[in-house]
Amino acid sequence: MTHDNAVHIDVDLPPAEAMALAQFMKRVTWTEMRACAADEAECYEIRAAIDKVQRALANADYAPR
Fold first, then answer.
1. What are the pLDDT tens digits along the chain (65 aa)?
2. Cβ 43 vs Cβ 30: under 8 Å
3. How far apart are CA 31 and CA 16, in angstroms?
4. End-to-end CA separation in angstroms for the chain
5. Interhelix angle 15-27/40-59, nearest 10 degrees
6. Residue 36: φ, ψ to 5°
7. How far apart (Å, rounded) are the C-alpha atoms in residues 65 and 54?
8. What pTM was estimated for this model as a whole?
9. CA 6/CA 20 separation, integer angstroms
10. 32 Cβ partners below 8 Å, 6+ apart?
């Protein structure tokens, strides 16, 4: 999904960091995200952002099972 005011980021990661990030995003729980969020709405935004980064990592062949 693209938004008119979407922020585009590019990042270069060594393979070990890419896999570690992919693993982290797979393992982080709603409870952990909620503890870091200001409210439930922000938690949903965090989850949505994580989903997008996970898809980008998967497209780069970093999708842990």
1. 556 799 999 999 999 999 999 999 999 999 999 999 999 999 999 999 999 999 999 999 999 88
2. yes
3. 26
4. 25
5. 140
6. -95, -15
7. 12
8. 0.86
9. 26
10. none
C-alpha torsion sign, points 44, 45, 51, 57? negative
Number of alpha helices (DSSP H) and beta strands (DSSP E) in the chain: 3, 0
State residue 3's pLDDT score: 66
State the amino acid at position 57 in one-letter form.
L
Could you tell me the two tokens for 27? 């393992």
Total number of residues shown for the chain: 65
Return the structure tokens found at 62. Answer: 């970093």
Determine the 3-state secondary structure of 55 from DSSP. Answer: helix
- Rounded-to-integer distance, Cα 25 and Cα 47, Å: 9
